[in-house]
Amino acid sequence: MLVAAAVCPCPPLLVPEVAAGAASELDGARAACADALAVLAAARPDRLVVVGPDAESGQGPYPEGTRGSFRGFGIDTDVRLGTGGAGPEAPERELPSSLAVASWLLERTGWSEAPVEGLGVAESLAPERCVRTGAGLAGPDERVALLVMGDASACRSLKAPGYLDERAAGFDATAARALGAADVAALKALDAGLAQELKASGRAPWQVLAGAAENTHLTGTLLYDDAPYGVGYLVAAWS
Question: What pTM does this model have?
Answer without folding.
Answer: 0.94
